[in-house]
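Quick one: co-fold with FE2/S2 (inorganic) cluster.
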Amino acid sequence: MLLSEMKVVAPGSLTEALRWLEEHQDRARPLAGATDAMVRVKEGQWRSPIWVEIRRLPELQRMDQADGWVTVGAAVTYGRLLRSELMAQTAPLLAAAARDVGSVQIQAMGTLGGNLGTASPAGDTIPPLFALEAEVGLCSRGGGERWVPVESFFLGPGRTVRRPDELITAVRFAPQAPGERWKWQKLGLRGAQAISMVSLALRLQPGFARVAFGAVGPTVLRARKCEAWLSQAEAFDLATVRSIAQMAWKEVAPISDVRASAAYRQQMACALLERGLREVLAV
Amino acid sequence: MKVTVAVNGTYYTREVEPRLLLSDFLRHELGLTGTHVGCEHGVCGACTVLVDGQAVRSCLTFAVQMDGAAVTTVEGLTPAEGELHPLQEAFREAHGLQCGFCTAGFLMTLVPYLAEHPNPSEAEIREALSGNICRCTGYQNIVKAVQLAAAKGGGR
Ligand SMILES: Cc1cc2nc3c(=O)[nH]c(=O)nc-3n(C[C@H](O)[C@H](O)[C@H](O)COP(=O)(O)OP(=O)(O)OC[C@H]3O[C@@H](n4cnc5c(N)ncnc54)[C@H](O)[C@@H]3O)c2cc1C
Ligand code: FES
Ligand code: FES
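Sure, here it is.
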């Protein structure tokens, strides 16, 4: 298949990559695993005269824990996330979502930074990052580094606060507590390689709850009323769990598209939350 | 743009257009037509090759992204002409193919998988090949072929 003409540059360092973005602004676009970019280019979208290859930049490969933060580089692939001992210990929620992305071939190339860059409300790493209250690291040559809370990073489908001269360098978050209950769920049209119709990242500790839904709004969103009720509940019986799960209905704002109707998504948001809560609370 | 890739153990340096897909590079530049192209949208898995030992979709990759990488195609599975890889042998024995269009993609997905998981359960096998589509076999015999290869310690 022949694509329209373009230029691909392969800078050897972060500084060099940032220089390309600064000099060419809207005419240059980062290229990581290409699993979204290639599909869009073939569909005649995302025409960019210059693609700046960043997949192998050493500065974007980190996965480490220091000073209370777990930091994951933007070019870390799903394959690395789901095999990482550090992720299994500090962010099993994120690792579980990585396991549900695409197929092994997509997991080998697709990156965390690319999932954020595409900014689909159905991006599977995003609900876990909301539930972890992660921060997105952005870097430019002129402005240096800034960290943006993941909830303010997204503006709408495909839209983020990233400036054209900036690169996503990493995400960072506080580790999940050792004994906390958590659950990742994804509802798609088939078991594998399906885009989420509804997804849910759930974290529970005594007096603490995080509920983040994917694919039921213009961006991933947190169900704050459900979170408040969950963190205040004294005891969880089936009736309490059901009534809290039903509140999700009002908190989500889905659209109808080829994959599912808005009403179905609303019902499924409640169903996923109920199922997840019943599983982690054993009620 | 100049690109140097080791394909099946041989280094190739070529001047290519940046827009050239890895799948087209392999098929048209190098004449390695064992890698098939189906959907060209990353869905069917027919174009799967190994890049530095990992299964990736060559239709979703630019050739220039492979500079310095080691690529293995289905042609590189066997040491010599006429011989079969144990997994290919198992596909033949268990009737894991009919038209064969999808087969190279399945093999290239499963070779690294079996190396990492030598004794997969049936459910695990089905999950491992969920990114590959076959229009002929109904998958049953593909699963059996993988089980056969695993039982014989094949895969490698
Ligand atoms: C068959 C198939 C199945 C898929 N299944 C799923 C799925 O189940 N769940 C899911 O969430 N996604 C899925 N995807 C989508 C895709 O694989 C992911 O979104 C992936 O994370 C994209 O990463 P990438 O490295 O390939 O990004 P690329 O395609 O290289 O880039 C994507 C976008 O992000 C920008 N970008 C990339 N890196 C950076 C950076 N560091 N800084 C700034 N901008 C950047 C690029 O400019 C581009 O706009 C699937 C795709 C395919 C083809
Ligand atoms: S041809 Fe590459 S996945 Fe279908
Ligand atoms: S054998 Fe024909 S597509 Fe699989």
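If it helps, Strands of chain B lie at 2-7, 10-15, 48-51, 54-57, 70-72.
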